[in-house]
Every structure is written in structure tokens, then in C-alpha cells.
Amino acid sequence: MNKNCLMKKLNNCICVVALAICMVFALIGCGEQTKPGGTPIYFVSNGETGIEAHYFDVTGETTEEKINQMIDFLGRTPDKLEYKAPLAMVSINSVVVDANRVTIDFNITYKELSSTSEVLVRAAIVKTIVQISSVRYVVFTVEGEPLVDAMGQTVGWMTADTFIYNDGNAINTYDEVIVKLYFANESGDKLIGAYRDKFYSTNVPLEMFIVEELIDGPSGQVEGLYPTINPETNIISVSTIDSVCYVNLDSSFLNAVNNVPIENSIYSIVNSLTELTSVKKVQILINGEIPSVFTSSYERNTEMTTVLETNTSEENN
User: 28 by DSSP, 3-state: which?
Assistant: First the structure.
């Protein structure tokens, strides 16, 4: 082999190696887009049609350190303005961590958000923070007062499952729904099914809406219906997995209302939720735990139901 031929082959090899190196650097350069590293931090899309994840390294060791870093990231407006930073739109007064719950208090500027922006900001912050393994619930307050939604309802404790999206079009929309709710008769020993026709926020799971309505009690438009749940009861979370609806309430649920036994209070929830085709069983938890007097899960019970003596069992609210 002559010298020119050898040099030609050597140059070809060098070109191949150089090309391979360039490809490696190209892949590394686009790695953040194809296989992002770090923790997803959620921001509001520019069109305010949803939230989107961007990735940052969260290096804190304690829960408080991680939350502080996430809050810092959530307030960073990108140089190219390709998305909106949730905490660039509002200001925080304080953050309190208590066991697995985080309370974030905002200043009055939070109330200046449009309804759509408010839901998206709330979703972005909650979905970011609950990624911390030690955090299960997040609640918002404004100047120390509980946050209410566009319909004036208290938002309460939130999890990642609190937010539902339907192709990005369900943000801040309200649908009319007819649900069957089970309340108590006058003596409290039987349950009576009554239909309720109402608009509800599609950003809230229908299961949570049903539990909220049960806690609110009968509308008063139909005589003979009585509350089954202590109105002081707070909802911690409601989620459905594999046809089992998990309803997590605080301990106020255990305080009976009127003459209603706790078993009837339970089945008012169970029978109401199992009216939905997506729910076959219900698990009631108190502060995240199953009390020893509760069973692991409840199925529909029609033996304790009765009907009103009047001609109608429908209530409109």
C-alpha cells in the first residue's frame, strides 16, 4: 500500500471519529429535551390552556429546603418567555410545613388572578410540591383566609389528583350534572335517595363534588330529608383508583349529626358514590388512616334505604 493511499484511509478514519464525536455532543446537547433530567417543575402555558413541566435540579435535603428551591424555580420567568412562571404572577406571605401538609399563604394580589389563571397557578404549584415524598397535601390561604374558587366554594386540601384535565379544555368550565345523593330520614335510621341538579367545576372530580354536597346537606327544598354528615367535616382528598373511591376526611366526620349512626353516615357516602358507573367500592379514611371500627372497603347497601312518603324524591339546588 502506497503512502498516499494510507494517508487517505487515515483521513477517512479521522473523519468518521470526528463525526461520531459530533453526534455524541449533539445528543448531549439535546438531551434536556429528549430525556430531561432533574425534577419536573410545572409552569403555566403561554396560551393558558394548561400547565407544562420544565426540569430543574432540586438538591435540598430537608422538606423545607426542597420546597424553598421549588418556590424559587416557580418564580423564575424564562428569558425567552416561552411559558409563565406561576409565582411571578402572585406573591407569597408564608409557607408552613406541618407533618405531611403544606400551607401556603398568599398576599391579596392572588385575588386579582383571572379564574383561568388561578386554577392553572394552583395546579402548577400543587403538582410541583406534592412530588416531595414527605408531602401529601397542600392548602392555599389568602391573607390568612381559606381560598375559595370562582363559585365561592372553599378549595381545601389539594393533592395531585385534585386537578382534572380534558384535552386542556376543561380549565375553569362548569357543567350541569344530576347526581343522586342519600340523606337521612327524620329518625336517622334509614337513607333516602334524592336527585340534585347543579353546576359544578370540571376542575374538581365528580366524586369530590358528591361528597361536598353530602356535607352541605339537603337543600331544604324537599321536606323529609336530613343531614347524614357533620357539617364541620373537612375533605382532605377524594380519588378513584381501579373502581375504588378513597374518601379521606378529617376526624369531624366521626362526630354524629342528629340521630344518624356512623354506619349510616358511611353508607350515605358509599351509596351516593356508587351511583357513578366508575365507582364499585368506597374506602373511608380518617386523616389518612382506616379506623379500627371501619371495614377495608364498602359496597352499595340498599337494605338501609327507603323512600319519602311524598310523591317526589327530587330536589333542585
Answer: helix
